[in-house]
Amino acid sequence: MCGSGDKPPKPSENGASSCPAGSTTQTCPLKKPHLVELIEVVARSPEGTVVGAGAASGKLATKTTRTDKKGAAYKQFINLGKDIDGADKRHPEYSRAVELRARVEGEGSLSGLTVNFRYVLTPGKDRPAGMTGGVKEGFSSDGGAATTSSSTDAEGWSGTVEFHLSQYAGDQYEVFAQLSDGGAEKSIGKFEVWRKFWYQMTRATTHAVPAPAKSVTAYAAVCADMLAATEVTFTKATAPAGTFYPAYMVRKNGGDGEESVIGNHNRDQFYLKFSPEPGKPVKGHLIICRNQWDPAAAPTGLVNESLTTDPSAEITVALGQWNAGIVKPALKGSLVSFGQWTQGANSGAITDADIVIEKTRSGIDRFKVKLPAGAPAPTAAAPVNVKLKLNYGTYWGGESNDHQMLIVYDGDDKAFNQAVSHEFGHGFALTPSDGKQTAPLTKHATYYYNDQGGQGPHCHTDATLVVDASTSSGKRWSGGTCIMYHQLSPSVCKQVFCAACEPHLKLKDMSTIKTAR
Amino acid sequence: MTNRTEIAALMQKSAPALLRGDAQALLKLEVDASDIAFQGLQLLAPQRVPGAAALPLVLLVQKSSLRGWEVDEERNLALAAFDPVNGQLQVGPVLAAPAANKTLPYNLQRPPRPPASAQRTTMVNTYRFDARERLDLARRAGPLVLHALAWDWVSNGARVELDADPAHRAVPAPVQPTPATEPGRLPTYETTQRHPPLPDAGLAFRFEPLRQGGHAVLGSFAKRASVAEVLPAPLTMATGNGPRQVVAVVHIALAVVALDSTQPAIASWAVPVYGQATVKAGERIAGHFAIDLAGLTAAPLTAGQQGYLFMDDQVAGPQAVGVQSAR
């Protein structure tokens, strides 16, 4: 009975009172205020509900739906700002914060009730122990409190509560809310820490390049989505001068086919082909070239040769390094930096027109001289002396300049993928030297530097230290299988960030691409 | 006039412009040098450099194209800086390392061997660089003796006076390594029949394989004693041959260079001169040493490596690491 003076019936667990059937008096059933929903919200003027990790609200219109998932968890891309596409398109799935509200229903005043929030963490693989401060999760701020509470307004809504995920990729969170005086607990989640970045591929239309699928997989394994942005292509007509050479110029027996050659002589113009997009702020520019060449800083040494035939026999220039060659026209400026022929008192100039590079030359450090008109015909008895200095080039396997990366693709898919993953890895500050790792991670176990091979910080997982007199330590790591090994090694690279690198990469926020060397 | 002195004279004639990096002067040097039948390395340095100012050097390398292919400069051209006061030796590459943001091609190979005619093609390269950018000379003061190395080639020595530092005074160093106290063990500073003959002045040495593996270096030297080397009074030192009187201590450094390396194995020693009575600066002193090189290099020395010894302004070598009979 619900008669006057009777005590109200005991509320059920969900706050609703039970009332005997047929009761006709008083206000019955009496509903004790109780939590009816815990939702994710996004402030998009007006505020609305985000569906996915949480359900739709009975009161607040749905604004957007989360779709990026890994298993049952919703990806939270912590390296991107919520408003990169504008406040009216605020992304609830970006940044470390998720915004939550709880709502109470029931009779009587709904204002001033206290809702308590807590979370449950499922740690990501190899999450370091002792995460504190800014890299840790918490309410209201990075590294904030483990619990929080909020008072309801007259309509029963709690304030918007921010839960900040950690910075460690793969950490999963479920958030719970409960009225302070008990009742059922509501939950939302799971949210998982992810990062997202994009790559823009720029390539010659004649240079078919596959998508870097192994790189995409490698980054997904460390909870980072690597997504293709709009590709840019170029032709000989739209490329800067000096971009296309017949292959025999840059490679012994290379043939007549023209190939892209990109380097210091033209790369700035390729940098301009990068399309910045506010909505894709972490975007790398993969400038794909068949050959990466730079003009040498200074011409060759002086070549001193006695010609007994015209054209001459093949002349080898000691370029001083293995990755160098002579191409015509020179990558930059004239090919002949200094050139003269002499025979007795006669002499004359040698110019670019007198330098012959044959398709069949026995090495790319070789050329012939065809003496200009007016020069005497050389013989064994009366040779013509030639002194020459040529502008030459050096060739490389790739380079990175923050988000601008030159990547060589020569048909080796594995080398290509390792190069892409590797250069982005440097861009995300791999491999950190001791002291540069993100706390609380300890020293990277397989880090090494130039003294044991390569240029810059690298990883020697599965490698063997071999004797090598060319390094300052006398030893060099050989046969590394990690993406961050110093040498592209398509035959042995496992196309993964190894167990030593993985936690270091997972603890990076990846909000910028900044080459670490 | 030898070909080397002709080259040296050419460089001295235009020294200020060359050290300044004047492009026309460097080109003229290459053109003029190419008419001199010289093959080797020649180094030009200023005589004195103030404070922490740049230490510009000009290195001329003249060789055949074939030699250039066999001993390429990126992998072999090194600068050795020996401080005769404290015996420290530093060696580093002459050519700057590639930019750290560049990767070498994964399939990089040495270019194909040039035809025999490349033996007749000569090349002259000049390199102008700041020694301070190659070696850690930031706080160094006093004399410095510079040599360029390219495996089995060594340049002239160029002595540079860096601004003297009062703290950088010359004092005799303790003997290092200390002699073995058991007879017949290394190191020893006694002479043996296996030592090179004592030169009138300078250094002579050779490598000798050891029966138990590894190598020893056996050397003999003679020189005029410097103030920094003489002891105020003879010092008694225990040796495998009983107590000996040390009257002077001489700094000698060793570099063992491998082909395709600008990072030689280095050792610095303070070698005792035995005698009965105190010697004076300027007097002739002589000594010997036999030192086990175990631990000097990451791997045992191998045939084909080249050794150089540095003492005062002099360099001895190259001396090939041989495979003579075991001692």
| Measured distance between first and last alpha carbons of chain B | 42 Å
CATH structural class of the largest domain in chain B:
Mainly Beta
Q: How many β-strands of chain B, per DSSP?
A: 18
What count of helical segments of chain B does DSSP give? 6
Cα radius of gyration of chain B in angstroms: 21 Å
Descriptive account of the structure:
The complex is a heterodimer of chains A (517) and B (327). Chain A is mostly beta strands. Chain A contains five helices and 33 strands. In chain A, the strands form seven sheets. In chain A, strands 4, 5, 7, 9, 11, 12, 13, 14, 17, 28 and 29 form an eleven-stranded mixed β-sheet that branches. The longest helix of chain A is centred in the last third of the chain and has 15 residues, at 413-427. Chain A starts with 33 loop residues before the first strand and ends in an 11-residue tail after the last helix. Mean pLDDT of chain A is 92; it is low at 1-28. Chain B has two domains: 3-162, Sandwich (Immunoglobulin-like); 202-320, no CATH class. In chain B, the strands form four sheets. In chain B, strands 2, 4, 5, 8, 9 and 10 form a six-stranded mixed β-sheet that branches. In chain B, strands 13, 14, 15, 17 and 18 form a five-stranded antiparallel β-sheet that branches. Chain B starts with a helix and ends in a 7-residue tail after the last strand. The model of chain B has no long low-confidence stretch (mean pLDDT 91). Chains A and B meet through strand 19, strand 20, strand 28 and helix 4 of A and helix 3, helix 4, helix 5, strand 6 and strand 7 of B.
Layout of helices and strands:
The complex is a heterodimer of chains A (517) and B (327).
Chain A lengths: L33 E10 L3 E5 L10 E4 L3 E2 L2 E5 L19 E9 L8 E9 L15 E2 L7 E5 L9 E4 L7 E8 L6 E19 L8 H8 L3 E5 L3 E3 L9 E3 H4 L7 E5 L4 H5 L11 E7 L1 E5 L6 E6 L7 E2 L7 E2 L10 E8 L2 E4 L5 E2 L9 E4 L14 E7 L2 E4 L1 E4 L2 E5 L4 H15 L19 E2 L9 E2 L4 E4 L7 E4 L22 H6 L11
Chain B lengths: L2 H11 L1 H6 L2 H11 L6 E5 L3 E2 L6 E9 H6 L2 H4 E6 L6 E5 L8 E2 L18 E9 H4 L7 E9 L2 E2 L3 E5 L39 E8 L5 E10 L5 E8 L6 E14 L7 E10 L9 E9 L13 E6 L2 E7 L7
